[in-house]
Amino acid sequence: MSSWNQMRRPSQPQHASRRLPGLALALCAIAGAAAQAASAGELPFAGHQAAVSSAAPTDRLIVRYRDASELEQRAGRTLRLAKAVDTSVLQQRSAQLNQLVQGQGLKLRLLRQTGTGAHIYKLNKTLPTAEVARIAGQLMANHPAIELVEVDRKVFPFSSPNDPLYAKQWGLSAEAGGIRAEAAWARATGTGVVVAVLDSGIRPHVDFEGQTVPGYDFINDLTVANDGDGRDADASDPGDSNGRPCPGDDILFGSSWHGTHVSGIVAAKANNATGVVGAAFNAKIQPVRVLGVCGGYTSDIADAVIWASGGTVPSVPANATPAKVLNLSLGGYGTCETQMQEALDQAKARGSVVVIAAGNDTVDVSRITPASCNGVVAVAATGRYGARASYTNYGSLITLAAPGGDFVNSLDETILSTYNDGYVTPGADSYAFRQGTSMATPFVSGVAALMFSANPKATPDQIIATLKSSARPFPDTCDQCGAGLLDAQAAVQQIAPWMNEVEPNGTRAKANAVTAPGQMRGVLAKATDRDIFRVDLPPGKTLTGRLAPLTAGSGATLQVQDTVGEMASANGLGQTAATDFTYHNNGTSTKTLYLFVQTARIEVNTPYSLDLSW
Description:
Blueprint: E1 24-25, E2 28-29, E3 36-37, E4 41-42, E5 58-65, E6 69-74, E7 77-82, H1 87-101, E8 108-113, E9 119-127, H2 129-142, E10 146-151, E11 154-157, H3 170-173, H4 181-185, E12 194-199, E13 216-217, H5 222-225, H6 258-267, E14 284-289, E15 296-297, H7 298-308, E16 325-328, E17 330-333, H8 338-349, E18 353-357, E19 368-369, E20 377-382, E21 400-403, E22 415-420, E23 429-435, H9 437-454, H10 460-470, H11 488-495, E24 498-500, E25 512-513, E26 518-524, E27 530-537, E28 542-549, E29 556-561, E30 579-584, E31 591-599, E32 606-613
Parallel strand pairs: 12-14, 12-16, 13-14, 16-18, 18-20, 20-21, 24-26, 25-27
Antiparallel strand pairs: 1-17, 2-23, 3-4, 5-9, 5-10, 6-7, 8-9, 11-15, 11-17, 17-19, 22-23, 26-32, 27-31, 28-30, 28-32, 29-31
Helix pairs in contact: 6-9, 7-8, 9-11, 10-11
């Protein structure tokens, strides 16, 4: 049994702390008195404190028959896809499985087929995971048609601009531990990108108006679903509490509104004079419900991964708006299941990046699923000043870290986002402070959306590699936290496609037109050479640029001129090394500027880069 991540609590706790066994929410929550924030009144706190202990009990098995799937080559990967099995054959096989377990007082009922061709069987009772694993081995050894049997594990959500609460969102912009979002927004805001949030669903919220696309509820079990039905197109969150403790827990707890909090970190609406702002505030959120009362099943989550990325799941309508980024702030103890890995492989082959919380149990992430699966972005958490959060999981499989909060002295050290003030059932819109790798993960998902917005042709491997290479050094100690701290500005800048200058461009008439954001690369072939770029700057906008040499010892100078050849007043010009400059158009009409790049020395073949944004 692992230790719980206990927080120092302010006075007047509003919710009881929640403890979940097994696969758990990626959230460490704060319970306490509400903080005051501009025009928002009292802010409720998350009332759940989850940590991962031993694997939770389950009542389901994943069984794959040898003839129930087919292999397909796509994007250089071999994918396993569902293939129909004759109904009479399935009935016969199900009867044979029941013969194998009936001596133990067990019965198996066939529920459905998955997107990878496996079949889900439900036991007539909930058993410890180890016992279900023993039964899986028994079936595998005694039925010749079976190719694979796995435990269908239970998972849970991991917990622990002019927007008035933006000042409290240190994770976006704090000098030490923030992700440098404002600089990234100059180049991309997430436009055109869908981020699927596989979680507890979402509550309607003023900060989500116009921010969502249709999602889906993948929870089959009515007890878990808590909404009176099974799978359907309604991904709203009815609450993940039924007013009773979960198995193995003697504490009564309220609903977590976990998916609502996570979604706000990704893409809460910006500049609506309300609440908070998301890391990719022009991206769209696709709510995909996989977690309900006492968690959710791996098989439902695997199907949701397939569907969210644009794949086919039997009996589920096609996804009209497939997501480029999938956020999974969930997981728990165990190795990466074959079904989950195959679903993740499918998502990656379709061009989607899957970002997963590392978990909050202060253990090596290799013990946690699905964060330990291949081909994903596994996210650890840091506190406000960039040090490793006290609760976060760690290890060689961590990709990078992002702000998750670490409560020491103040709630302002945790992560503020959208919430609901209902205890068990939904109430009114609100905002809450929470902490955990659940909160760190949507920061990374939001930045991945910014990257896809800057370069829609980027592949998942390019996004993952750039997230790692652009991560900045930790400002404080963060051992085994991956490549570094998430840096939105550097990630967007590195992923944006470069454009090469087009010669001849040595006169105004032949200047290369550049639309910011843009990244140009050029070469000054001789000492008398010059390259000219034209920028049409809208009124009220500030042009920001950087001219930098691409080889050691070389240099170039930059002049900014207006249409009549007068030198424009730009800040920061005149250097021969990297040159940063800004120019503000304070007029009422678009202003045309010409950027002159010339050699700084008597030399030939001077390569340079020119990075522009507004």
